[in-house]
Amino acid sequence: MSWNWEFALKVFPEIFNVIWLVIGITFGAYAVALVFGLILTFARRSSFKPLSWTVYGFIEFIRSTPPLVQLFFVYFALPLIGISLNKYVAGILTLGIHYSTYVSEVYRSGIDSIEKGQWEAAKALNFTKSQTWSKVILPQAIPPVIPMLGNYLIVLFKETPLLMAIGVVEFLQKAFLIGADHFKYLEPLTIVGLLFLLLSYPSALLINRLEKWSNQAYGKGSR
Amino acid sequence: MTKNPVQNQPLVKYEKVSKKFDNLEVLKGLDLEINQGERVALIGPSGSGKTTIIRMLMTLEEPTSGVIKVDGNPLWHKEVNGKLVPADENHLRKIRGDIGMVFQQFNLFPHMTILRNVTEAQVHVKGTPNDEAEKRAITMLEKVGLGEKIDAYPLQLSGGQQQRVAIARAVVMQPKIMLFDEVTSALDPELVGEVLEVIKEIAKESDMAMILVTHEMDFARDVADRIVFLHGGLIEEQGSPKEILENPQSPRLQSFLKRFLSTT
Known about the structure:
The complex is a heterodimer.
Chain A: H1 5-16, H2 19-45, H3 49-63, H4 67-77, H5 87-112, H6 116-124, H7 129-141, H8 146-158, H9 171-182, H10 186-216
Helix pairs in contact in A: 1-9, 1-10, 2-3, 2-5, 2-8, 3-5, 4-5, 5-7, 5-8, 6-7, 8-10, 9-10
Chain B: E1 12-21, E2 24-34, E3 39-43, H1 50-57, E4 65-70, E5 73-74, E6 77-80, E7 83-86, H2 89-96, E8 99-102, H3 114-124, H4 130-143, H5 159-171, E9 177-181, H6 189-205, E10 209-213, H7 217-223, E11 226-231, E12 234-239, H8 241-246, H9 251-263
Parallel strand pairs in B: 3-10, 3-11, 8-9, 9-10
Antiparallel strand pairs in B: 1-2, 1-4, 4-5, 6-7, 11-12
């Protein structure tokens, strides 16, 4: 068994075409993670204890069970209680919610790094609670954690092959289907690896840039 | 929420106000009145409760017991059927609008330019149109000597400049009473003067009441109508600057001043 360039070039476009689906799923799930993660963060901070404890339990539960199990549960078990989702929605929601628990931890660290004096100054100027969040706290808490949030985007992207377990034809599944058709797995699987590298690496560089930018924002270190 | 502001009614009234942090009793039944437009300096050793007094008025700390009234209205309580019940955030917000504060650590918003720092609350809290708010902010910043710096960010300024911005940010909201919490304690000695000058200037030009927690005795003498000396969570002695600084009665105040004048 040796590398066949002709075969590789022939199947490359077929695998590459899946890219839009993979990117769509990644960003869809990421959007769910960013929004739901923020909701978890606020709920966790609630002074209404039953809510904050419930959310704490939920976060710990999601984080300590494998996403593959969650995926099977959502796609195969939920329909038994009347909740049927198509495989794309199930995949996006499951990955999104799984990562929202990590993202909410990132938000929390950003918020905790804001000095008490900022909250007090906002209060002294008589901002409402929601103005304090939207104008004072979040604009300071989010930029420093953008690199960490970006890392989760890449990690999430690399988790998309999990969705083959519920029949989504993403990169890996596509490669397997091609491999099974021709009894050749080397070329399609290599191409899949290459595509992940080609997409992940530039994103990582971009995140690096963002990190530098957020370290210099607002005149930091330029007195 | 100023209901029937009675003439000659004190602007702020503390009635038997106590504050406990865990087991530490910082204030032990304080009675204190501040009149409209009056400037009161709070002095005393650290731990005497002076900062707590103004933090409770700014609604940053809740009193353990007692009542604080602003313009005759209880701050931390609401009257329901003649009974005082704990106030909600809406009630606190209504009264808080009359109060402004400058902090020891400046607490400027580092992600906003100097101009935005002084404009933001005018626009979003008071509803002032943006261009008018900017005009007022620039006038105010010029007054504190920072008209050139409106596009800078707080971290690009010296501590003294930041504190002057913080003063402008609070004063531009036109509170009835301004609270100053050891506003020069975090500054390098050579920057203290410029900040105190700005406060004196504002005191001269406006008729706001002020409560100043300070360790600067000369400043207290210049600005204050009355000096209150606190010790162990109670008022030990109070009077005009002349009375307090030149003719202290209680032994504690005498030794406090002696220590102070010998170290400064």
